[in-house]
């Protein structure tokens, strides 16, 4: 007889910590909530916060690997002063007092001589409302963040068209959409919310269509993949628009009520008003009233525009925007048969996708029994939804035709009536905001005083360009000039090139934060490294002083004169603010903080606190009291006590002395404590009757005013036709007091069309495409973000090196096999790198992961690390400038409207390398590491 076994208890979930501290992730731009498990005062484990509105407990590999980012051997340890040549990496540690005095010694005199000689540019930081305020207080016009080489085309096109764009401005209605299309989306941005949303779509059986030259990540799980030819997305989208117009499948009611489709355009030829809207006595655009047939202000209660009518005056007919659109997009040039060869998408497939869009939008309409009141006071008993939604990112943005392509996609959504409706695209508070609710750019410099207003903004016409009295650019990056009039995020990728050339003028000090310009944050690494080390005839550096702040020993560190070491994201305060880049979702306004869950074990300081200390030392307005004492002790003090306008500050939650203020209220000394108690975030949900139709919903407008999003109700209509663009065309035609240089008139006239158009990417026109027939792209992998991930001991195990991926067509044409290298050339440079076969590619496109390759000596990696030996960048093949055109000028390799870096226009040729090099080429000599090398094995035991 067998004995009865003992009742053994197994602890399947032993405690991994003795305390949990909740904050916000910084391993990508999602800003998910995380639980940081602490053991004996050290970080032991990171998991998702299930109560957080962004990720609801989901955490990706990047987020979990944050522990290895925090303990990375490459962390800077103390302020550094360069003692060797630039680029050598030779430094000596100094005290913070000495570091701040050095910085003030360079910056202070400039402020009292010419503040423009300081250029202050930041990378992907999340405190831009603060860093821009610092630059404005200092008085330099030369400030911007990284958007110009990221996705300004997407952001600016969305705001000029409808008051917001994809990603941080809005999201699909994941719970109701039935057809979802992605355009040019890689996986590094917004990955957890998208993955959660895609899971919902898959669970409900909704259809997903991915439009991308590369089938990876999200496109790999799409129901249908459209392997489009790079740079032709706009042509493909306008062919869809052509089919919708041809079939009469557009939402006329939506267009009449909520867009400027009914605005009457002045068509009298050759006048200063040609192409502008007819305006009445109030100055408001006019529409033709359906009932009366007469002109009326567009926002008159009870007036519904007649899209089919025309207005005749003094023998001249004037038509509404809708008729101009129909005339343009019904043209044969946008017919599927006319665009199929260039896009790589068959005409039948284009027609099929257009028919599917129309069917889902209009035959599978969603109706919610939710009463609401519109901006004109009309009451509605239902909310009508079109369950088609889109998402797009850098893939369609980073082209020289990217602004118009992004505009085309927004117009496609609007024609379907699928924006701010159930099942469609939804805005996230504080968006939507029309372009004229944003500031215009300011460049008014006063020696010893602040700038006359915000640096960045949205121009309404030539009168807002950032030009000096003589017509020359006022900014070092030439933002808001005739070369790129609507450059809302600035042109960070042009700062070093322009400063080196002294065009439009020379600067003295370049101050960068978290912008790895000496490697993968510039368009051409080789050229930028040369410019940073170049000397003049006197033996002095062409750019005299470079100050850099980073948390890690990146490639850029070696090229700076002074290093101000930042903390890791677990060691500092950050404010993810409604004034900046909030964590809002469509159903609620929300913001968040980071806070020091651990104290630094090195002599480092949070960069924002360092800016406050510099501001105090220089006596900047807003940083000091009347007696010259510090107004804010540190960045945490600023977060709590700064007010951008009365009652509105960096954080919206728990305002007022009693802590009950939501969005508005006096500073609350206990505010940060309340955020920490609540998991690091605050959220206030939008009322149900305000959930949709936000730009026109009176309930939403009232709620937004109460929450400090607006000071007054601000309803508006979408701009299918962007009138400010027509004003620039008029200037190019010779009208107005402010005129472009003659060499830019043709470009402005051709590209600044107020209705979306498509034109060939500039590199297609400027290089011999027979010699360079292949498109070359980079994407960032889902498991890494910017350049941070490849120093991370966990993430390196996923991708320790990168390959150049070749489609089957090119692989077989050249007889490649596994282990081979290829030499890839552009008109700008040449690389020799390892290749691999990828069947899910457009047949004329090659690609690789970006930011895997590292410079030897950087990031505390061993010089034989695969990232340093085998990894590589495509940047060596790209240039900030287009190839010479023979006109004596070098044109920026950017979108001519916004200045967006045209990364993805690159054309190359490829050949099999006859001999396998010892490492990827070009290879650079090692730089000396100020932090040494990390251990061979990175292991921790808790």
Helix residue percentage: 10-25%
Calculate the mean pLDDT score and round it.
95
Provide the domain count: 5
Largest sheet, if any? Answer: 7 strands, mixed
Structure classification: alpha/beta
Q: Which segments are poorly predicted (pLDDT under 50) over 5 or more consecutive residues?
A: none
**Oligomeric state of the chains present here:** single chain
Portion of residues in beta strands equals 15-25%
Strand order of the largest sheet: 5-4-25-24-23-6-7
Shape: globular
Q: Count the helices. How many?
A: 24
CATH architecture descriptor of the largest domain: 3-Layer(aba) Sandwich
What is the end-to-end distance?
Answer: 45 Å
Question: Compute the gyration radius: what is it?
Answer: 28 Å
Assigned CATH class of the largest domain:
Alpha Beta
Keywords: 4Fe-4S, Iron, Iron-sulfur, Metal-binding, Oxidoreductase
Domain 4Fe-4S Mo/W bis-MGD-type: 18-74
Organism: Aliiroseovarius pelagivivens
Pfam family, one: Molybdopterin
Q: Which terms would index this structure?
A:
about 950 residues; 5 domains; 7-stranded mixed beta sheet; alpha/beta; 6-stranded mixed beta sheet; globular; Dimethylsulfoxide Reductase, domain 2; Rossmann fold
Brief write-up:
GO terms for molecular function: 4 iron, 4 sulfur cluster binding; metal ion binding; oxidoreductase activity. Belongs to the prokaryotic molybdopterin-containing oxidoreductase family. With 942 residues, the protein is of the alpha/beta class.
